[in-house]
């Protein structure tokens, strides 16, 4: 009986620890984001108040200023948002097309040196953005595509292609090759077999690859900060810097822009989160 | 019969072309310029060949070595802690019976944040004047405002905290996926055979999780340099270069001091570092896969 | 007229040769089964006929037309795959009609063809389901329906039943045979299961290591195997084979000294001293009064029974003869105890003599 009691006590204690641990972890994950959201709705005076004010008041000032164009601080948020959307969407579309064709090649064809090519492509993804930004800055300036949408789109396509290949390769590999053989026997050309059978089956995987590419482009800073200069091409991560002056930072305005940045990413990720995880693991484990 | 370009090559062509244009050619250019005293302000310096003098200068510069060492240390600590925390979180979430989906969704939260946003977020939270941390500490009765981003050691801690906050979820999510995929029978057999929880974790769960851990490591190592964004925003390498990493040093040398040749030489060192990390984990990944018989 | 002809067809994968020059003529409307152990090249041969593998040498023609370099879609064939390869994103109706849609046939024609196929296979109730919502047998039927919708010249089946459980397999076997009788097309069917081959085929092509070993009707292969491989591969249980040496008085002396008379057909073709394998099927050796009749030449052997397996109408007996485990069959069985010694009668005319070296059967003329 005693030993049963001891085990029961231990189990109860572990359960308690488990709960406390989870609670702590989730708090640490959530609080920073919530803090940003909260502060985007607080007046600047209150954010700066000493001693701190704990029961917050509510204001939409920062959003009003942000969308009011050249209002407070004069940060042209609409232009940045538009640039971000154009650049991210276009580069994602192109990267997915190119990456999908590459991923298909890796999943379906046998050729010598395959894994070598694969690792090689991945290594290009590993080149640090900062290290790449130095020569790109010079080359783009020479070619004359610095500070343009086109330049940044090109960069993001190249950045996203390797990882898109990794993901789509994993998804295409899951599809039995008999499927396109059956389609070919049913009268399809290879091209038709891909678009009518394999692509629809892998659709969710391709979607998650697209989300990843989009997030990378949407969030990228190191390259964008060097390759864009003007309102006409700066993206939101670069625009975030506009809120910092020499010695002061407009915290409230920054928080509002941060919320605007994180919102689309949040929505997109929730839509495909299941496939996202499946894609990452399949790409790796079954590779 | 018909001798044509193989289809796989045609399919990979666009990828090769775009990567060659955007990554390979600039890298070749930067390799060349790393052997010149190229300064943005004096374009003609691009044509002066100085051999490996830039590299010599780097290798004899204690500031570079300090940054290099700090980068390695930073990555080692960050990656290890991320792995340990990720493993811990995954195990805890795996044990949850109710609301697991919600927890998993919350776990993905930091993955969506732009690194620069993470930087700003923690710059705000660790701000010595209006930051959340100091506000809480002061409300709890501590009178001194801790100089989180001003003191060298505390700044490094803050940066590490931000980095770990951002990247732990990649580990947690992938390890969790591994735990979900894990067959139950071996664990139950071990229980019946008399393994303690620790033994069955050590000898059954962990080996099964290894490939998943290496996937996470590989994905992570593809992107080690994004810590640059965080550091750049939070401290800019300061105070007094106490948080200077390879990447911030490089960007300062290139853009602020306009010494492109020298910066590109540093760039090469950082590229080699990233590549070394990636290859190392790729190797580990295929080894772990082979061991579990998961390979194709 | 859609006969399929293979002449000297070769498949090479780099250095490795998988199929070594196969010659085969398949008549219009014939049901031919390619059978053999895994890795014998049967699937590769089928995939070359389908156009899914390049042909490294030789010629494949369908309906008198050489198709070596035609893509699958121009060969007018259809194929049922081992894992069915149903399109998971389409419902049954769409799966069935896919090939006709691709061929851009008019909608009314597609509908009637799909309905006709569904009726033949009893799929009417399932038309709007996705493959994931179907059982194994239903998927199998849809795969067959997809194949018959287009009225192809030739049906190809690649181990279509191996993913089903034993009961369903028997049932689908019957359906495939009925289907063949109904539509009457040429069918080429690949399997590793000799029971499927025996029950389905008009003609069996038995392959090993990329070569054809024997071609013939199921009964030809069963009754007149050309070598020990065919003898042990076809039929269940496999043929009993005993090592022995031909003696001066035209018997075979087994390794324990016991002598068995040589059946009449090879009697004149063996040489004294020749090393042979003496083969007979379990059906042709049974306890006296329990199967083998007294007509024709017979030989009696005393056997100590190691084990018996009652199957109802017959009992399978396991015994050891000349250090080799053999099996024999007892019809109208009575209970048998292990260790019991029984006199068994061998129907000599059904016994075979194989050369021990070449494994080929020895027969007069």
From TrEMBL, chain A:
InterPro entries: BP-dep_ABC_trans_perm (IPR050901), MetI-like (IPR000515), MetI-like_sf (IPR035906). The chain crosses the membrane at residues 20-38, 85-106, 118-141, 153-172, 206-228, 248-272. Residues 81-272 form the ABC transmembrane type-1 domain. One of its GO terms (biological process) is transmembrane transport. It is found in: Cell membrane. Pfam families: BPD_transp_1 (PF00528). CDD domains: TM_PBP2. The keyword Cell membrane applies. Keywords: Cell membrane, Membrane, Sugar transport, Transmembrane, Transmembrane helix, Transport. GO terms for cellular component: plasma membrane. SUPFAM superfamilies: MetI-like (SSF161098). PROSITE patterns: ABC_TM1. It is a multi-pass membrane protein. Belongs to the binding-protein-dependent transport system permease family. MalFG subfamily. Part of the ABC transporter complex MalEFGK involved in maltose/maltodextrin import. Probably responsible for the translocation of the substrate across the membrane. PANTHER family: MALTOSE TRANSPORT SYSTEM PERMEASE-RELATED, MALTOSE_MALTODEXTRIN TRANSPORT SYSTEM PERMEASE PROTEIN MALG. This is Maltose/maltodextrin transport system permease protein MalG. The lineage of its organism: Bacteria, Pseudomonadati, Pseudomonadota, Alphaproteobacteria, Rhodobacterales.
Automatic annotation (TrEMBL), chain B:
It is a multi-pass membrane protein. CDD domains: TM_PBP2. GO terms for biological process: transmembrane transport. Pfam families: BPD_transp_1. The keyword DNA-binding does not apply. The chain crosses the membrane at residues 9-32, 72-93, 105-126, 154-180, 265-282. Keywords: Cell membrane, Membrane, Transmembrane, Transmembrane helix, Transport. Residues 68-281 form the ABC transmembrane type-1 domain. One of its GO terms (cellular component) is plasma membrane. It is found in: Cell membrane. Belongs to the binding-protein-dependent transport system permease family. This is Carbohydrate ABC transporter membrane protein 1 (CUT1 family).
TrEMBL record, chain C:
GO terms for cellular component: ATP-binding cassette (ABC) transporter complex, substrate-binding subunit-containing. Keywords: ATP-binding, Nucleotide-binding, Transport. Residues 4-234 form the ABC transporter domain. InterPro entries: AAA+_ATPase, ABC_transporter-like_ATP-bd, ABC_transporter-like_CS, ABC_transpr_MalK-like, ABC_transpr_MalK/UgpC-like, Mo/tungstate-bd_C_term_dom, NA-bd_OB-fold, OB_MalK-like. SUPFAM superfamilies: MOP-like, P-loop containing nucleoside triphosphate hydrolases. One of its GO terms (biological process) is carbohydrate transport. It comes from the Bacteria. Pfam families: ABC_tran (PF00005), OB_MalK (PF17912). GO terms for molecular function: ABC-type transporter activity; ATP binding; ATP hydrolysis activity. The keyword rRNA-binding does not apply. Belongs to the ABC transporter superfamily. This is Carbohydrate ABC transporter ATP-binding protein (CUT1 family). It comes from Ruegeria conchae.
